[in-house]
Amino acid sequence: MTLECRLISYDPETHYMFGEVVNVSADEAILGEDGNIDIAKLRPIIFDGIHAAYHVIGEKVGNAFADGAQLK
Question: Is the whole model's pTM more than 0.85, yes or no?
Answer without folding.
Answer: no
